[in-house]
Write a structure and sequence with these properties.
The chain is mainly alpha-helical and about 300 residues long. It has 13 helices and four strands. β3 and β4 form a beta hairpin.
Length: about 300
């Protein structure tokens, strides 16, 4: 073990091809793929490539898996910026602020609405404190301002809007730009476009790449899809890893998939029980008394509107 460590240290201190050490005049550059060797220049890197290629690919795959199977701290939705409690995966349990395009949980929005109603205050955004837009034109103007500064969330929303309208070319452009800026939702929707061939040629490799990027950034539905792909390829162990991560993010379909694995004997009772506990903990983490009040008020409003239409 110590010999291997010494060899690894030597490889990082000297050029892997010619063996020259780093000094004031020579700066070694690390191999961007495996990050396990360094070179003094492009010439040495090309000369060493034939004997390093196999080990490089193996180590690069190991590093990719370490990143891919690392449990994200939260889903791609993150926390409500007001109460700092994780946002629910259900989009109906949160509200998009039309002024700053921040997503606020319904509990905080309800509490703010009650405070303004009781105090007879003007309605303002909880996050940026700007008054609510008074027209659709003003809302659209705010949206364009966020697009001008390349807000990845707004770029993704615009891409989805174009996708729903059937404008695949424009949708692909917006989603690609959002994905370049690291938006998990954009990566996920691009994976669907490549899977279904919507505006682009069907491409399984690109679908997989975007799913992986989305999953790494905490997208639970992308994580479930990766599990399905691994299961179809016969990689049940990798599929279970994906579904366990999805369950810990509160994603229901991952739990359903693990239930099937338990029934088929692929995982033990203890592993399935761990997944159920983690799933419930993720769901409970998104709850609060304030959010329950907001949900009850929203339900009453919907019921009133439904009855008024009859």
């Amino acid at each position: 073990m110590s010999t291997n460590l010494e060899e690894a240290r030597h490889m990082m201190m000297c050029c892997a091809s010619c063996g020259i050490g780093e000094n004031d005049d020579i700066k070694l550059k690390t191999c961007t793929a495996c990050k396990s060797v360094r070179y003094c220049g492009v010439k040495c890197q090309k000369e060493h490539r034939p004997q390093h290629k196999k080990e490089c690919k193996k180590r690069a795959a190991e590093l990719r898996d370490e990143l891919l199977f690392k449990q994200p701290e939260s889903s791609h939705h993150g926390d409500c910026p007001i109460c700092c409690i994780p946002l629910s995966l259900d989009p109906q349990e949160s509200t998009l602020m039309p002024c700053c395009c921040k997503v606020i949980c319904n509990g905080c929005e309800y509490a703010n609405a009650m405070r303004e109603f009781e105090g007879k205050f003007e309605h303002k955004c909880l996050f940026c404190r700007h008054p609510s837009p008074k027209s659709d034109k003003e809302s659209d103007l705010n949206l364009m301002r966020r697009l001008d500064v390349n807000d990845p969330f707004v770029l993704c929303r615009m891409g989805l809007s174009r996708l729903n309208d059937g404008n695949y070319k424009s949708a692909f452009e917006y989603l690609s730009k959002a994905a370049e800026l690291g938006d998990a939702g954009a990566h996920y929707n691009l994976s669907i476009m490549y899977r279904e061939g919507e505006g682009v040629e069907k491409d399984g490799k690109k679908e997989l790449r975007h799913l992986e990027e989305a999953a790494i950034n905490g997208h639970p539905f992308a994580r479930n899809n990766l599990g399905v792909i691994e299961e179809r390829k016969g990689g049940i162990d990798r599929a279970v890893k994906h579904w366990m991560i999805g369950a810990k993010l509160g994603e229901n379909q991952s739990v359903v998939a693990l239930k099937g694995c338990f029934a088929a004997g692929f995982i033990s009772k203890d592993v399935f029980a761990e997944a159920l506990r983690a799933y419930q903990a993720a769901i409970d983490a998104t709850k609060s008394p304030q959010r329950e009040k907001g949900a009850a008020a929203l339900q009453k409003t919907r019921q009133y509107l439904s009855n008024s239409r009859k």
